[in-house]
Design goal:
It is a single chain. The chain is of the alpha+beta class. It has three domains: about 100 residues, Arc Repressor Mutant, subunit A (Orthogonal Bundle); about 160 residues, no CATH class; about 60 residues, Alpha-Beta Plaits. The chain contains 16 helices and 13 strands. The protein has a six-stranded antiparallel β-sheet with strand order 4-8-9-6-5-7, with helices on both faces. It has a three-stranded antiparallel β-sheet with strand order 1-3-2. Strands 10-13 form a two-stranded antiparallel ribbon. It is elongated, with a radius of gyration of 21 Å.
Length: about 375
């Protein structure tokens, strides 16, 4: 027998999204997004999903639903990038997509321009500061970290493998390239920065899902390295998961549009993103105070002093773009005394779930 729940389906889905590793903040702006993306019937089905992929038959049995009808509904949601779908030994498996990383990105990855996407862009922008930004700045462990531009690190300094973008890309069996959702969202709202958008990289099963559904393009390592080069030449900052192993994305971010760097530039919370293991320092004897380092920095860490520029260590991401832009070689990228913070995937997720873990487990059928 099918179970019934008197709670509004969109509210139930919002509550379920509030129990994901990066929990969705329960505010009216979130409800507006969910109402725009999901019909009541779709919201009800999505709210049944666990965070790990589950067989449709198992899900249907647990909730008294018809397997075929539920499977058709979830398949339609997956085609629109609203739930995650994969193939398993028993058929199709589905899981809930969190708001971030998940729903927010997928809705703009394909680069569509139409009134529906413009409305969605406005809704997600309204949700950024009180929703996504709040979660990123209050998380007990930074969700993302910066990787330095490879050519900015002196050869004599040991750079660990997980600090190299090339190393991370080379370990992936499945790579997908998509539009930067942040800059596309900004373009839809009329305030894009003009930086390249085709530089957003995803790895692993989620990359396969994105490519199969048409939200991204499957590429090889050569294509990924070309995207990396485009991003570096445009002065974009490499940002990936804050983990030593098991990275799932490599974004190339600007300080004006991108959700990770906006925690620094707009929300004024530098600690919300883990800095690279390097810091930039200015040699005052060589600095001519031309300001090119300030122009190159996505978070405006270089600051004018009495006669030369100095780097604000609290803001410096350790990305190396200021060093690359300096015409006199006055800036050096030096390794910090201690390595940048990172975690194992399980440790990071556990920290982010925090007090939500118990309730999330209780609502996770088939997990």
């Amino acid at each position: 027998m099918q179970t019934h729940n008197t709670i509004d389906p969109h509210l139930r889905l919002a509550e379920r999204l509030g129990k994901t590793p990066l929990p969705a903040v329960q505010i009216p702006e979130l409800m507006a997004i969910l109402a725009a993306l999901f019909s009541p019937e779709e919201a009800e089905a999505a709210a049944l999903l666990p965070s790990r992929p589950v067989d449709t038959a198992v899900l249907a049995r647990e909730h008294g639903r018809d397997p075929q009808a539920l499977g058709d509904l979830l398949a339609g949601l997956a085609d629109r990038g609203l739930v995650y779908q994969s193939r398993g030994p028993q058929g199709d498996y589905y899981s809930l997509l969190p708001v971030v990383p998940g729903l927010a990105e997928v809705q703009f990855m394909a680069g569509e321009v139409n009134p529906v996407k413009r409305r969605l862009a406005a809704l997600f922008q309204a949700y950024y500061a009180p929703g996504v930004g709040k979660v990123l700045t209050e998380a007990p462990t930074p969700f993302s970290r910066v990787i330095p531009v490879g050519r900015a690190v002196p050869n004599q300094q040991a750079i660990l493998p997980f600090e190299q973008a090339e190393y991370i890309l080379g370990r992936q069996k499945c790579l997908a390239l998509a539009n930067c959702y942040c800059r596309h969202e900004a373009d839809l709202l009329g305030h894009g920065c003009g930086k390249p958008k085709d530089v957003c990289l995803s790895f692993g099963p989620f990359a396969d899902f994105l490519a199969k559904k048409g939200f991204a393009q499957a590429i090889d390592l050569r294509g990924a390295m070309a995207a990396l080069e485009r991003a570096e030449l445009a002065g974009l900052v490499h940002v990936t998961d804050n983990v030593a192993e098991g990275a799932t994305f490599l974004c190339n971010c600007c300080g004006c549009c991108c959700l990770f760097l906006k925690t620094v530039t707009q929300l004024k919370r530098p600690g919300a993103i883990a800095q690279a293991a390097y810091e930039a320092r200015v040699d005052p004897d060589q600095c001519i105070a031309c300001g090119q380092c300030l122009e190159a920095c996505q978070v405006k860490a270089p600051e004018p002093g009495d006669e030369t520029y100095v780097i604000n260590p609290a803001l410096c991401l350790g990305c190396g773009h200021c060093q690359q832009s300096c015409p006199t070689g006055a800036i050096a990228l030096n390794r910090k005394p201690r390595p940048a913070p990172h975690a194992h995937r399980g440790d990071l997720v556990a920290a982010l779930q925090n007090k939500n873990q118990a309730s999330a487990n209780n609502s996770r059928p088939g997990a």
